[in-house]
Amino acid sequence: MIIKTKSESYVVTRAEYLFLFLAVLCLGQALPITQGGMESFQFSTDGLNYSAILFKVFLLLYSIVLLRMRKTGINIIPKVLLEIIIIWGILQVFKYRMFSPYPIIRILNLWFAFAMYYIYGRRIFPIFEQIIYVLSWCALVGWILTITMSPLMLALAKASPFEARALAEGNSFIVYAIADSFGILRRNLGFAWEPGRFGSILSIGLLVNLFLNNFNLKNNKHFFIILGALLSSQSTTAYMAMIAVIVIYLYNKKVKYIILLLPIAIILIFYMLSLEFMGDKIKSLWFSDQRSYEWETELDYYRQQDGYLVPQRFEGMMYEAMNIMHDPILGNATSPDSYLYSLFQIHFSLSNGFLRIFANMGLFIGTLYYILLYKASKGLAFLFKYKGSIAFMLVFILINISYSWIFEPLFLAMLIIGYYNFNFNKVRTIKNNVI
Prior knowledge:
Structural class: mainly alpha
Number of strands: 8
Order of helices and strands: EEHEEHHHHHEEHHHHHHEHHEHHH
Helix content: 55-70%
Radius of gyration: 22 Å
Oligomer: single chain
Mean pLDDT: 86
Strand content: 5-15%
Number of helices: 17
């Protein structure tokens, strides 16, 4: 099959397309087999999720077949990265006097990421964008049908043989599930377990679409379908990332377009922030005496329930910062909630990924990751010839405030491609200066 962009065409085999399609479904984590994504082996209250583990084994074997088809071996992770993770893992064992599978899982993340790098190269971007467009189209159709024919869609969801996870009402249609949460209308969670996760994935798809189309919107139906699906998620995180994408778009247009569109964008931003479902949510994040009282009450309630608490995003960042200050050198990956539990006698599930790598792996490895992210963002700007060297980094950090994407192999593969293009650009500049 052939995937076309504004300036290029890419040949993709059906096997390659299917593998990346499955990887994108893993980003959504909406099915039992995709729980935990490709980032982690998922534990449930009943123990190991064997269906998710078997699916990851299947993806591992699938990727090996694709690598062999491209005559590539399986020794693909750079030696220096392996050494860093192994040494860090050994130090974790000495620190906590217990073994954790965490370093092995991080190595698997790197292996999947480099496998995608060798299988797809820069083709990963147009294939990813094409898949996001298809899934956005399916989600929009399903969402509109759910709003207009809710009883029928709910009946079909109950009859579906595919089990859904988390915030879904009924079972899944694989590429679409009905959200059980409402904003202005019923929210759209698409192929993800939660509307915000769905919208966050689409925000990266929206940015990649602009990269591939030289920031042109004319005859760019993919952009508007993805944008429509993102808006239907009614997610604070997704909207903030979308605002960043709009700013990047304006920055890449001529001054006359900025003068015309910037006031419209500002009005749109303030309108979205004034919406009840966003305004109330943002207000609740501010710390106050009332919020402190509510927080203590909440702690007492969940202590008496299952002993687990998922705090709000910005509150979660504060608690993650406490973890970093307590374990700044090696991090706490072997025992990620032990310190907070010792303080509050409750297990925390911190959902943001912005600070997680520092909390889990320490300041040294966390700093290396953000250097990679910065260089990758600059490399992608060089590769796709657009203005804004930190554009990808900005949007990626915004979606990591609410979710953890830092180890997802698909996004890691994008960073690897950007990083290598950054270094290529640097080498070429040096050679040109010598000449």
